[in-house]
Design a protein that fits this description.
elongated, 3-stranded antiparallel beta sheet, 3 strands, 27% helix, 4 helices, alpha+beta
Length: 129
């Protein structure tokens, strides 16, 4: 048998009595369920919601930004989401437009239509298909 490199103190002696088991010392149950003593090194944090950051816009900047979206409509596809090319082709065949339309595919079946002229925007807004 090979000698172990671990000291004998790592191995407690076995009980000499048959049927006896080594047990942990009895617990003081009043201390087990007692509230913990606060540690002075422990920090208590609570949530302090910050004020939302407000970015001011002048009315001039706001009106210029609104002009970019004045000829846009948002559309939604019911059922299966059409491929971009198929929807673009269907728009060109179905809508008899004077100008052009840009199509932007958004999330969850939504599309953005940007028209180049007010007449086309008004036609689609009022009539749809």
């Amino acid at each position: 048998m090979a000698s172990s490199s671990l000291p004998a103190s790592n191995f407690p002696p076995l009980s000499s009595k048959a049927g006896s088991f080594l047990c942990s010392p009895p617990k003081n149950w009043s201390q087990v369920f007692a509230p913990e003593v606060s540690n002075p090194n422990t920090f208590s944090f609570s949530h302090h919601p910050s004020e939302p950051e407000v970015i001011p816009f002048s009315s001039d900047i706001l009106s210029k930004g609104g002009q970019d979206w004045s000829l846009c409509l948002v559309g939604y596809s019911v059922g299966r989401r059409p491929f971009y090319e198929a929807l673009s082709g269907a728009i060109k065949k179905t809508w008899n437009l004077s100008g052009s339309v840009q199509l932007l595919s958004l999330n969850d079946g939504f599309f953005l239509f940007r028209f180049s002229c007010r007449e086309d925007f008004d036609l689609i807004w009022s009539r749809g298909v």
